[in-house]
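In response to the reviewer comment on reproducibility (Comment 2.3), we provide here a single inverse folding case reported in full, input and output, so that an independent group could reproduce the run without further information from us. The structure tokens appear first.
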């Protein structure tokens, strides 16, 4: 078995952490039990480009239990947990190509290793495998029947491909499932981003001005959690409806150039390019901390900092201070990469339980239905979404109401009005 990881000797420690995460992933565990019985993915090759974390390891275990042959690489150069990668290789026999801190060349070599396996299903987080295949590895298309996509940034790329008729096979946008973005994006990103910032800086958050660029589900969760930690939260937005919602949720809303003047900590969660850019840097107060919790580090214009700084100093691992020509300093965390995975452990297992339940079930769905699907970006079928929510509630010991026959009849009629 070919693989490329940091150190196989880390495997036993990684196994312990994988099993610890598994305790808080009961939905995925229930799917794994069924997959072991039914083997719905028997003989299917899956090429997965995901964050190599303990939660991902439990997804991989589930896919393998279903009969799949899984090849895994990292979806970000800084998000790999090296002990998890080792455990997957040693204890589960999964070819893993991921090393925390790998350079860009190694990163794409690892992506190519996944593509070389000739996967039938791609499983992406950020659409780098899909992009690579379509741009420079069209030879892989012959074996692929479909794919899944985990995150907002990847869905944006795939929808652009579909719109331009460049996408060559169907992909289910797992990120669009209610049981994914309502929970993973909001509660997962909200908690794990603050976790990464605190671990890297050990700064007190209470009383700080905390700027959030982007008020989608990730931004909502982050703003809510920062407020709960005592921050004065400012939201920057381009969408008038999202900005209005942020305002009515009790947050200050202002343009980025104004926010730069008061920001103590600034986090981007937009999925766009150069969100923190030259106009921000010129207004930013000395000592401001900037970081990103979106998928790609392009949300922060790091080349501008590199070009205009008179000095760059690593204060501690993944904490870099740039001194500008006028003497002001700006602190960048985790090279502008996902601060929640680079500086901490990413989302808690309980929310990834639902996200990865979607991945597992959508792989099964894709195998059964891809032949009838045109190349496009699809939402998760509602019955899958609802079943995951139902099972999650059951594992939490929460029961809900059901409609009576009388109510069902009323909901399906039009005759009854004002009485």
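Designed residues, in position order:
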């Amino acid at each position: 078995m070919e693989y490329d990881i940091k150190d196989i000797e880390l495997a036993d420690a990684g196994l312990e952490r994988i099993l610890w995460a598994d305790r808080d992933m009961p939905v995925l565990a229930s799917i794994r039990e069924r997959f072991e019985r039914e083997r719905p993915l028997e003989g299917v090759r899956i090429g997965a480009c995901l964050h190599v974390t303990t939660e991902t390891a439990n997804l991989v275990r589930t896919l393998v239990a279903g009969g799949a042959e899984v090849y895994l690489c990292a979806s970000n150069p800084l998000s790999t947990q090296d002990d998890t990668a080792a455990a997957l290789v040693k204890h589960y026999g999964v070819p893993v190509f991921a090393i925390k801190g790998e350079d860009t060349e190694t990163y794409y070599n690892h992506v190519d290793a996944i593509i070389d396996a000739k996967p039938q299903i791609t499983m992406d987080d950020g659409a780098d495998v899909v992009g690579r295949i379509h741009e420079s590895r069209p030879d892989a298309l012959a074996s692929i029947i479909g794919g899944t996509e985990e995150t907002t940034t990847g869905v944006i790329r795939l929808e652009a491909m579909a719109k331009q008729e460049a996408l060559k096979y169907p992909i289910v946008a797992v990120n669009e499932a209610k049981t994914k973005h309502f929970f993973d994006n909001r509660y997962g990103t909200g908690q794990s981003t603050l976790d990464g910032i605190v671990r890297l800086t050990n700064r007190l958050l209470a009383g700080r001005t905390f700027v959030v660029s982007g008020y989608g589900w990730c931004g909502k969760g982050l703003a809510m959690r920062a407020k709960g930690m005592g921050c004065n939260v400012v939201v920057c937005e381009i969408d008038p409806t999202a900005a209005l919602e942020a305002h009515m949720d009790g947050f200050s809303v202002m343009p980025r150039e104004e926010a730069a003047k008061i920001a103590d900590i600034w986090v981007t969660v937009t999925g766009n390019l150069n969100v923190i850019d030259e106009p921000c840097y010129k207004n930013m107060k000395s000592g401001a901390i900037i970081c990103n919790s979106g998928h790609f580090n392009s949300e922060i214009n790091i080349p501008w900092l590199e070009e205009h700084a008179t000095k760059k100093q690593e204060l501690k691992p993944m904490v870099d201070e740039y001194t500008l020509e006028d003497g002001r300093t700006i602190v960048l965390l985790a090279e502008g990469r996902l601060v929640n995975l680079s500086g901490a452990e990413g989302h808690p297992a309980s929310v990834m339980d639902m996200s990865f339940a979607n991945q597992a079930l959508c792989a099964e769905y894709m195998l059964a239905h891809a032949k009838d699907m045109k190349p496009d970006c699809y939402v998760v079928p509602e019955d899958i979404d609802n079943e995951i929510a139902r099972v999650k509630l059951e594992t939490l010991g929460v029961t809900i109401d059901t409609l009576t026959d009388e109510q069902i009849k009323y909901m399906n009629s039009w005759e009854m009005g004002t009485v």
